[in-house]
Fold this protein.
Amino acid sequence: MKTHFIIVALIIAAFSFGGCTTKENFDFLVTVEPESKASVIMPDDMNSAAEIIRKRLNNSFGIPKERMKLEVAENQFSLTITKADTGKISSIKKIITGYARLEFWETYENAEIMEYLSKANSLLREMKSVADVKNADKQDEFIAQNPLFEILRPRVNAQGEPLPSCIIGLTRGPDTAKVNGYMQMPEIKVLLPRDLKLIWSLNPNKYDLSEVLYELHAIKMTTRDGKAPLDGSVVISAKPVIGHTGSDMKIDFTMNAEGTRKWARMTRENINRCIAIVINGYVRSYPRVMNEISGGSTEITGDFTVEEANDLASIFSSGSLPFEIKIVEEQIIKRE
């Protein structure tokens, strides 16, 4: 593992007829490499990552190309920003390494999956030993009879009817790993639709006052390779916008011609169904489609903070990095 080090220049206010030292009398040098070395990174991907970072810095901080020097090597690249604003170094590092994988997925309705979950719950109950069930006291009886539904709370109304949504259950944060374990069991997987993909929400359910229950969403895989039918590569611009309440933040996207065509098809074919907006592997929002969106623009919510909405908009506008990166060396050097 490389030793990370920071050479921080000591800023001394020197009063003279010429004025005082400013915070932009420094250069910021940073060396970046792929987060994982398990896979081979092609030279074109390294050059692409370097160019995306250049765009991000220009979009977010207005740093012109002339003040950025990028040198790409085989497995890393170095970046020098001249006349860097030392007060923004932390934000600059965040923008450089920000990895936001944006995906748009079609979904199943809760009612379409409930029967499969019931079968999985029954099978798990049968897999328990008879002795375990017989020895269970009244308090544990429900757990013994419902090993899955005890930790994955079904989304049903008072009459037991499935609620309309792509959310198929709510689970306490510590229990999500156990649910994942159940769903990955070969005996359970054969009961579920082959094109079903399960993705958790990033944040607890907004209507859960305890703020501990996370949503499990039923994603429908509709492509041959199992990838999202639409992703962030089609986004040509993004900007944060303030919602109607004045406190909720949204991100407004504009797509290229390919994205516009695919988005129109997805929304047209999924009217009255949910589209899951997934960022970095977690569902951030799941709007129900009311009509076809043909203009190539869309607005998403996701309980974003102002800072997060700004950062994500900048990252999406500049394009997604082809791989995750990390900073392995950084320096702040006083200009001569």
Notes: The two ends are 33 Å apart (CA to CA). The first helix runs from residue 43 to 61. The longest strand covers residues 325-334. Residues 1-21 have pLDDT under 50 and may be disordered.
